[in-house]
Amino acid sequence: MKKSINGHELEIPNHVAIIMDGNGRWAKKRFLPRNMGHVEGAKTVEQICEDAWDLGIKYLTVYAFSTENWKRPKSEVDALMNLLNKYLVDSIERTSKNNMRVRVIGDKSKLSEDLQANIANLEKASSVNDGLQFTIALNYGSRDEITRAIKNIANDVKAGIVNPEDIDESYISSRLDTFDIPDPDIMIRTSGEERLSNWMLWQLAYAEFYFTDCLWPDFNKDELIKAIEYYNCRDRRYGGVKG
Length: 243
Ligand code: FPP
Known about the structure:
The chain is an alpha/beta fold. The protein is about 45% helix and about 15% strand. It is globular and about 55 Å long. The chain binds farnesyl diphosphate. Farnesyl diphosphate binds near residues 38, 62, 84, 87 and 191.
């Protein structure tokens, strides 16, 4: 889809995936506790969902809590879980107003029962919405996702659902957490780090990567437009040659 932004005709990526990094540094710069960075980061999430839809983005996926983030101090993990729980509860009303659908990817079985119930409620309540398709990765790690998919595929073979010779890329995609979401076109990471950190390794095979020094709580619509402008300067060939 093309859209005129700031007087320029830009191709809008269908799916944007974001590593929201820099909450801690944002707080530290202001002599605030790290958790305040996450609180501000959660506000940015709400705003960027509106901005993304406004710009014509259909799918937005964010990395909210990785399989490695359990190693953080218990007080920070608890604060993040409380924040996510609050977000899920508050989003019931918000998503019905703004027509946004929310899904959660990752190993939900390791989350608290409370969180799992709130995820299920929001996923169900928002499932009919056809506006922004918003996905939150929670207790997500790409290697963990691929490992779970391989186990499921092995069970499919055992149950006679699929023959090993019929397992192709699309079958593997269909067993990942993102089975009903198209691959991202662009991956954004904030805060100056240039790593993938176990984020959507399979799905990002052909995505453009955009790194910005902006810390996540400071990320806004103008920053998102800069990423889209960068995306428009790229020459996507998917391994082929330009015709
Ligand atoms: C990385 O910054 C950020 C996280 C591990 C948590 C992301 C969570 C949020 C943005 C808030 C809640 C999310 C939703 C969907 C409501 P960091 O803490 O590693 O920052 P640092 O590298 O500066 O220390």
